[in-house]
Prior knowledge:
A: 310 residues, Ammonium transporter fold, globular, B: 438 residues, Rossmann fold, four-stranded antiparallel β-sheet, 27% helix
Amino acid sequence: MSDLMKVSSNPHVRSRTSTGSIMLTVVIALLPAAGFGIYNFGMRALVTILITVASAVLTELLFEIICKKKITIGDFSAVVTGLLLALNLPVNVPWWIGVVGSVFAILVVKMLFGGLGQNFMNPALGARCFLLISFTSIMTNFDCDAYTGATPLANLKNGVDVNIMDMVIGRTAGTIGETSMIAIMIGACILILMGVIDLRIPGSYIVSFVIFISIFGGHGLDGAYISAHLAGGGLMLGAFFMATDYVTRPITKNGQYLFGILLGILTGIFRLFGPSAEGVSYAIIIGNLLVPLIEKITLPKAFGKGGEKA
Amino acid sequence: MAKLTFRGGIHPYDGKELSKDKPIKEVLPKGDLVYPLSQHIGAPAKPIVEKGDHVLTGQKIAEAGGYVSAPVYATVSGTVKAIEPRRVVTGDSVMSIIVENDGLYEEVEYPAVKPLEEMSREEIIDRIKEAGIVGMGGAGFPTHVKLSPKEPEKIDYVIANCAECEPYLTSDYRRMIEEPEKLVNGLKVSLRLFDNARGILAVEDNKPDCIAILKKLTKDEPRISVKTPRTKYPQGAERQIIYATTGRALNSSMLPADAGCIVNNVDTIVAIYHAIYEGKPLMNRIVTVTGDAVADPRNFIVRIGTNYHELIEEAGGFKKEPVKIVSGGPMMGFGIFDLDVPTTKTASALLCLTQDDVSAMEEGPCINCGRCMEVCPSRLTPGMLSDCAEHYDEERFLALDGLECVECGCCSFICPAKRPLTQTIKSMRKMQLAKKKK
């Protein structure tokens, strides 16, 4: 018997789930959406995805080498950020858009605030909004070989008829990963079944959004109009993959419902009354900023002090 | 019927198959026996023997040091070799009586017993007190104190905690399989003390064989029922088992008696049985010797004071090099660096592992995933509490109800970033509780 036993305070066992395994699950869950994007828009989409993911990982690696910090690219969080950003880009963006976006997401939004777990807004969305403001015409040009003209949401806003079946399957113009509701839902199911996310945020987000547009959209409870809003734009991708980002959503249960409701209302306002057809990205990053306040007012009660049932 | 359970909790690998199917084996100690004078919560016991005295099995060698205290009995016959500080599982040095075993196991004559129906409340409690019985689930709270609440008529439930939710442990399981009538009769003693109480045998639903045995044994007992809470760690934690079986919720400022409940674990109830029906003091307990490093993992009936080395020997020694040895279960046990410590009244298991998760997994930053909150049986915010502890933010720690933590270890177990949440919260808690006492 060795003289030196490992001694530590309890507990002495740990679960197998790690930060890396969670992030890898998210990457896998994003693959259906990415795959459909490549099928829908062609190889150009794959190139954009690869460039964006590679530059996200490289940015983190270089930052850590230069700052002599521990290398953390093995936790796959940079891959998730890069992939999410790529799925939020139109297919025909020049290659440097992916690079600039990734550098902004990883360097400015994530690493400068202390790295994984410290950023106060979703890095991919932060970068997307940065690109939208800085390179508006590039970021809103959805023309490509497969489709010309406006996205279904823009058509919807302008009163042009949309084909809902195409929107659900994803045969429409839009960003690489947002068009197919089916592909996104497959990924969402993976996340839910693997216990990575639950329905609190996506559920309250979608329900409150539907209520909001039913009241203020001018179409009442028109099923076709509501379905088009749900299937169109980045709502599904945002609700299941970005609003649920651990770091930038409230940790408290009630806070998560509140957060979802807030996002639903903000998205409704931006889509119905804003100048642009889309509003998911802005809604989520504004929601991100309110997280500390939401957590503060929704702290749970302890067992034996009223919290045993919650 | 609603599922009997609580919010939170985890499902770790339970390792019970290693030892659950082998009968309990008796260990006869060979070497010296060490009796720490503090094997319980409260004042240490006071030695009543001196170096050189001859003692018999079952002879009292130290008397209670106060009301909240418990006497200690010799578990072999032999000679008192020394009274000196010895190391115990927690790593502390505790004043202990050392008895050299003469190998004859000569016993004292135990006091005569009366039928339970003829004993008065005071007699029963006195007998339990004299027998040196303490909570054998781990806390070591003197049982006679627990059984003497201010208003005994307000006790509605006496709960036998047979959950055994701690992974790897099978001692309660074996006891229920092999000597269930002792458990049921022991529970009847508590029912005798509390006229208005109903008895509950709370067995996790992963032990259907025990449930069947106990149900059969109690089918003619109108005051006793078997309840089967869902299998989940820490179902056997005091507040959780009370909540799961009665729906009453306690916080840290309350005792179970405040909610009309008394909870005792299986071994404690069997010790009560021995004291009342056989007149014997607490002299042995069941210890699960297990883990992937042990050649023949199984349960042993061990005389208090037996050295841990002897337990490993009885279990066939090590088949693989252990890296970590834990006294108790993997969730709440103590990591020990040396086997040269005695079995005490509260030692439930000796777990020898060939892999140490704690040192093998690298700690990373918190990603705010919220799993610690999901699993916390006390419904706290472990991630935030751990932050407060690391920055010594007392005010926020107390505001977030850090003192409600029961140190069950669920948050550390589940944390994907492998952060030592329980550990930091535990040390902060200790400091705050010490401050409160002043």
